[in-house]
Design brief:
Strand content: under 5%
Shape: elongated
Helix content: over 70%
Number of strands: 0
Distance between the termini: 21 Å
Structural class: mainly alpha
Largest sheet: none
């Protein structure tokens, strides 16, 4: 149970921090400057928006899977997968913010994406395996 609370809180903190980062970028610009920056694939604002948007796409489902499994006294491999999912999301966010442009590949973004898909599928399978126990 502890692992699920820690994992979900870290995912929530990531989404909030990335959203706050977008707000900081926007506050530093004029309205016209922000519009131009959103169109520029190398701008800090565009990368911040992309990182936040991507986190919003995956963090909620991972949080649901983690929370559902966390209340079921998960096995060690599930606990490790929960933490790995969180690490993957942080890697992806860092890679998105550190890349030269939103279209330029970055190793952290690749590792984060691969880790997100792998852990997401593993957590989905783990939850499916728990279904007969609840029936």
């Amino acid at each position: 149970m502890f692992e699920s609370f820690v994992s979900v809180s870290l995912l929530g903190a990531l989404v909030m921090a990335l959203g706050f980062n977008v707000s900081l970028h926007r506050m530093r610009m004029t309205t016209d400057g922000a519009r131009l920056a959103e169109a520029d694939s190398a701008s800090g604002l565009r990368k911040a928006i992309r990182a936040h948007g991507n986190a919003i796409e995956y963090a909620p489902m991972l949080a649901i899977l983690i929370f559902a499994l966390g209340g079921r006294d998960p096995s060690l491999w599930v606990e490790i997968t929960m933490y790995a999912a969180v690490v993957a999301r942080y890697c992806h966010a860092a890679g998105s913010l550190l890349c030269k442009t939103v279209h330029t590949p970055h190793l952290l973004r690749f590792v984060g994406a691969a880790g997100t898909y792998t852990t997401g599928f593993l957590l989905s399978i783990a939850l499916l395996l728990e279904a007969p126990k609840v029936w």
